[in-house]
Design goal:
By secondary structure, this protein is mainly beta. It is 6% helix and 48% strand. The longest helix is centred in the last third of the chain and has 6 residues, at 414-419.
Length: 456
């Protein structure tokens, strides 16, 4: 499992109904209705891929996660009035984080449809504990994750630049790729794909084996104790890295001199070194040095061929985008919606006249007030980094965010709010918050802890 966060709300995504004869599909694997290929458009949120999935006739939204071996449904008890799962048994599963294993229902013989791909006998896991709620951290409806079961049955193209995945029948796939593409062999560990790459640390090139993990929004994770040459850079800070199934994940953030994949090189790449206590229970392979995550992955378009054990990639228009990170110390999450009363001034022109003739110089503009109510997202501060600019300014966990740099809730999404914290060093942030029913204003400047700042 990875660092993804998930939203606990009924899905509002549009699902395109496709009519077909279910009897034509074999049990236990995905097959395409038309036999050749299918294109599925996705939403791209915080470097994560969100696709429409229907399970037992219920349309849902899932993260596409190459780091997961079986589909997992979250907040099952919030969905159970709509979603029935078949042939269940109680099990315990362990994810990232340092908490105890969690209860889940293992279910078989479920019908799963993704575009025109159908599996009539899909195993999945449904999380029982309703308190495990990753939902608020993405701000859109997400009901679960799916990965290996799609990739094992198809050649899968992920086009980040045009936001679609394409599923190909491996028997009919034309593997001829242009010279712009590069290929690497895939190595599998517990059904998870690992590739060879290299990083530069202290001017030294270090080869690394990385799990390709589309379910994580960071750029790179490296495991410090997996290679003596993987030393943590001197400029670091402790930070919250995300949530796994088994609790919060913490670690150190830093910047690598470079990251290299075949002959493609990225410079000044963000990296995180997760605490060993957060990952020690997840059977880390001694062969693996870390994970290649969404903030690097989305700079390429990909073709995965699990059956032939290779992956192809080419850079896209995101390749040269600079790497940014949250310089405020604020972690925010979606906390539902609230009703906001807003006032609008409507101009009303008044002209004095006598017998239908306007009196020169007497034109006036009057304003009348009107009020309207809007349903807007409610954003709250869920965590604050110790000694961060936001904490030093006086902000607190639990503060309800009303505006950021004069953008109020009607124009803010969780993503646009967070993006403002990724600005350049010294950018001033003004926030209006509500605490215990009292409206307060705060301001602070973003602080870059990883790059040297000019003294000029």
């Amino acid at each position: 499992m990875t660092t993804f966060m998930i939203l606990n709300i009924k899905s509002l995504c549009v699902f395109l109904f496709i009519s077909f004869n279910l009897s034509g599909f074999s049990q236990g694997k995905f097959e395409l209705q038309n036999g050749k290929s299918d294109k599925i458009h996705f939403r791209f949120v915080n470097n994560l891929i969100v696709i429409p999935v229907t399970i037992n006739d219920v349309p849902l939204s899932f993260l596409l996660d190459t780091g997961v071996s079986k589909p997992i449904i979250f907040n099952f008890f919030n969905l159970k009035e709509e979603l029935s799962i078949h042939e269940t048994e109680l099990i315990f599963i362990q994810g990232l984080g340092n908490d105890k294993p969690i209860e889940a229902l293992r279910s078989s013989n479920n019908t799963v449809i993704i575009g025109e791909a159908v599996n009539l006998n899909q195993d999945l896991f449904a999380i029982i504990d309703a308190s495990i709620n990753f939902a608020p951290s993405l701000g859109i409806p997400i009901h679960g994750i799916i990965g290996y079961d799609i990739f094992k049955d198809f050649v899968v193209e992920i086009n980040y630049s045009r936001k679609f995945i394409k599923l190909y029948n491996p028997l009919l796939y034309n593997s001829k790729l242009s010279k712009k593409w590069r290929t690497l062999d895939l190595i599998f560990y517990n059904k998870k794909p690992i590739i060879e790459a290299s990083v530069t640390v202290d001017n030294k090139k270090v080869p690394v084996n990385l799990l390709i993990d589309t379910g994580g929004s960071d750029a790179l994770w490296l495991f410090e104790d997996s290679n003596p040459s993987l030393k943590i850079p001197s400029a670091t800070f402790e930070d919250f890295l995300g949530k796994g199934l088994s609790g919060s994940i913490f670690g150190k953030r830093a910047v690598l001199e470079s990251f290299r994949l075949k002959d493609f090189e990225l410079n000044s790449v963000n990296v995180a070194f997760p605490d060993s206590s957060s990952i020690q229970k997840t059977k880390i392979n001694v062969f693996r040095n870390g994970s290649l995550l969404g903030d690097v992955l989305h700079r390429f378009n990909w073709v995965f061929n699990y059956k032939s054990k290779w992956v192809a990639f080419r850079k896209n228009n995101f390749f040269n985008k600079s790497f940014e990170y949250n310089k405020s110390g604020i972690v925010m999450q979606y906390a539902g919606v609230r009703l906001v009363k807003t006032r609008a001034l409507i101009p009303k022109k008044s002209v004095d006249s006598i017998a239908g003739y306007a009196i020169k110089g007497s034109n006036t503009i009057n304003f009348t007030s009107t009020y309207k109510f809007e349903i807007v997202p409610e954003l709250v501060i869920s965590d604050l980094r110790l000694n961060s600019p936001a904490q030093e300014a006086g902000l607190k966990v639990g503060d309800v965010v009303l505006s950021i740099n004069r953008q109020n809730l009607s124009s803010l999404t969780l993503q646009t709010a967070i993006d403002q914290f990724h600005g350049i060093h010294g950018t001033r942030i003004r926030m209006t918050i509500e605490r215990d029913g009292i409206i307060m204003k705060y301001q602070f400047k973003l602080r870059d802890l990883l790059h040297k700042q000019s003294t000029n």
